[in-house]
Amino acid sequence: MDRKEFLKTTGLAGGTLLFARYPELNPADKKIRIGMITDLHHDIMHDGIERLSAFIKEMNTESPDFIIQGGDFCVPKEANTPLLDVWNQFKGDKFHVIGNHDNDGGYTRDHVVEFWKAKSKYYSFDKNGFHFVVLDGNEHNESPDRPKGYARYISQTQLEWLKKDLDASSFPTVIFCHQGIDNDSGGLENGTLLRYTFEQANEKAGRQKVILVISGHHHQDYYNHINDIHYVQINSASYSWLGDNYKEVRYSAEIDKAKPNIKYTAPYKDPLWAMIEIEHNGRIRIKGRKSVFVGSSPEKLGVKMETYIYPIVPYISDRKLG
C-alpha cells in the first residue's frame, strides 16, 4: 500500500493528525500485535495461575504491542492477588475487559476495576495508528426486559458514549466485548443495536472504520463476517462448561473440595490464547493454540451437540481475514 492509498483508506487527508501522534508510523508496513487470553475462570480452575503464567511467559518472549484479557478472569478478592501478580509480570501495556463472572459473590464492577487496576468499566485507547474500544456488556440492571441468566446488556448511556467515541477517532477501530455481539444464543441482549451502531459509524465515515470485533464468554471457536465487519470469538483459556453432563474426570479430593465447580467442566489439557496481528491494509491474522480435552470429549460423554450453534472444541483456530 503506498502513502496515497493509505491516507485515502484512513480518511486522513495529508496525514497530519496520524503522523503528529505517531511520528514513527510507516503506513506501508506498520501493524499491531496483540496477545489475548480470555475466560481463564481462576475461581473455578485449580491451575489458573499456571495457565496464566504460561501465557505471560510467552508474551514476554513474543513482545506484542499489548496484551488483553477478555473477562471472566477473577473476582476481586484478596486471595486472588497472586494471579494479578502474575498478570503484572508482562513487561508491556496490559488491558482488561469485564466479564459476567468477575463480580460474582456480591462484588460490584467498581470493585473489579479497582482490584485489577483497570482503566475503567468501558474505555478506549489508541496505539500504532489503531483505535481500540473496550465495552462493558454487564449493565443488566439497565435492561427493560432482562432475560434470565447472566448479565449481557449495554445501556443507553454507554451506547451514546460509544457513538461519540467512534465519531472522535479517525483510526481503524477494533472492539472488545466479553459477550458476543454476533451471537444471539447468550450474547449481548441488544447485540443487533450494537452491530447497527458499528455499521452506521462506517457509513458515516465512508469507509471501514470498525474493522474487527472480538469477544470471549461463549467458550467456543467461531467467526462471522457481517456487513463487512469481522466478528471473532476467542475460546476460553481453560474449559467448556457442561454442567451435570460432565462427570468423568475427578481431580484430587483437595481440589474438588476447594473448587467444586470444576466437576462440571470439560477442561482443556493445555491453556489456550491467541496472537492477533492487524495491518493497516486491512489484513488480520490470528494465531491460536490447540489442546485436547482432559478425559473424553463432550460428544462422547453424551452432550447433545446439536443444541449448540457452534462446535465445542479444545482449540483456537488460526485465521487469515481481509
Helix and strand topology:
Blueprint (H helix, E strand, L loop, with lengths): L2 H8 L5 H6 L9 E7 L10 H15 L3 E4 L11 H7 L5 E4 L12 H8 L6 E5 L2 E5 L21 H13 L4 E5 L13 H15 L4 E6 L6 E5 L2 E5 L5 E3 L11 H6 L6 E3 L6 E6 L4 E4 L31 E3 L1
Parallel strand pairs: 1-2, 2-3, 5-6, 6-7, 7-9
Antiparallel strand pairs: 1-12, 4-5, 8-9, 10-11, 12-13, 13-14
The averaged pLDDT comes out at 89
Shape: globular
Helix percentage range: 10-25%
Number of continuous helical runs: 8
Radius of gyration: 20 Å
| Spatial separation of the terminal alpha carbons | 14 Å
Structure description:
The protein is an alpha/beta fold. The chain is about 25% helix and about 20% strand. The chain has helices spanning about 5-10, 15-20, 50-60, 80-85, 110-115, 155-170, 190-205, 255-260, and strands spanning about 30-35, 65-70, 95, 125, 130-135, 175, 210-215, 220-225, 230-235, 240, 265, 275-280, 285, 320. A 6-stranded mixed β-sheet has the order 3-2-1-12-13-14, covered by helices on one side. Strands 4-5-6-7-9-8 form a 6-stranded mixed β-sheet, with helices on one face. The protein has a two-stranded antiparallel ribbon with strand order 10-11. A hairpin with a 4-residue loop joins strand 12 and strand 13. The chain starts with a helix and ends with a strand.
